[in-house]
Specification:
Largest sheet: 3 strands, antiparallel
Number of strands: 3
Strand content: under 5%
Shape: elongated
Distance between the termini: 64 Å
Number of helices: 13
Order of helices and strands: HHHHHHHEEEHHHHHH
Radius of gyration: 23 Å
Length: 289
Amino acid sequence: MNYLDSFINFILIEKGLSKNTAAAYGTDLNTYLSFLEKNGKDFKTVSHNEISDFFWYLKDTLKFKATSIYRMIESIRQYYKFLIAEDYIQTDPTVYLTTPKTPQILPDMLTVDEVTELLNSVSGIDDLSVRNRAMLELLYATGLRVSELINIKLSDINIDECYVKVFGKGGKERLVVFGSKAQSYIKRYLRIRKNTKSDALFLTRLKKPISRIEFWRQLKQIAINAGITKKISPHTLRHSFATHLLTGGADIRVVQEMLGHSSISTTQIYTHISQERLKEQHTKYHPRG
């Protein structure tokens, strides 16, 4: 029996994870299982110490970073959880594994003023400018991932009620609301959007669904035109959306739901951003900062 294939099928079908995520699990576990095989170990009876040897091998021989080792540990943990649940093994050797501390990298974000400058810089009346402004307004109003944004269909968005249905990681569906600003720009875009057989909301000049790369290219040029020197990507607006909401007093659980995070710990990174900005402001402006 191929236990790894069974596990991959489980996370694809039962847990609804994406093919890319399943492939990442497969890569991690193949590395782990190959190491055990080369060292004459059986993954069903391997000990805690022998798994620790594998992580030292990753660190010292393969020069893996702490973040990569952390991901590998999580892959192996999930694998053994599956084996236990299916009664393929009786003892979980990962119970006492400790994860390395990973440096916390705060994502790039824009200030409220910078977002305003970015949006207002797209003021043209040509079709491309109207579309780009609608996309940016919706992106900042909702905190969508760019993949979610470009995959919105006409049937997914309710303009009058100001909400959009999106499909996030693993195909999970959620409803996200947006405000009157985004509503007005989307209405404006729909008025100039030519009839086409495509059900995609946002189209190129050739009436094809816009790609992630094309939108990223447009955004980079818009940022240059707006005079923004920070490194910017579509995800920057997602980070800015979450940080501005939390700084303004929004409930973290609500922000978690809007972002489509399965764990609140993922959302908590944005509270750290707010705290870091407060520290920066205190240091800069307080007489004893």
